[in-house]
Amino acid sequence: MLWYVLKLIVLLPMIALMIWGCLKLGRTLQAKVGVGTGSKSIRIVETTMLSPTLKLAVIEFHGREILVSASRQGLTRLAEAPARMREEGE
């Protein structure tokens, strides 16, 4: 019985740490994979984190730039303007 409790004390935190690491790695990889510049009609121009639960994003869509806020409750359109000219290096 003592051996079982000792294994449980050692293995349970190790499993929890592996789960946490996988979630953290998944979130990091998901953030690095953005919308491509291929033939898609939408492009994320810029994002800014305002708080842990609120992010601002500028999205280019069919020649317009749309400012949206992203939170746990969803997306909210804040402003819209004509798209700025992109530089050749981008």
What does the secondary structure layout of this molecule look like, with pairings?
Elements: H1 2-32, E1 42-51, E2 54-61, E3 64-71, E4 74-82
Antiparallel strand pairs: 1-2, 2-3, 3-4
Structural class: alpha+beta
The main sheet comes to: 4 strands, antiparallel
Number of strands: 4
Question: Unreliable segments (pLDDT under 50, ≥5 consecutive)?
Answer: none
* Overall pLDDT confidence: 85
Q: Roughly what fraction of the amino acids lie in strands? A: 35-45%
Q: Write out the strand line-up for the largest beta sheet, numbering strands in chain order.
A: 1-2-3-4
The Cα radius of gyration reads 21 Å
Fraction of residues in H or I helices: 25-40%
- Quick one: overall form? elongated
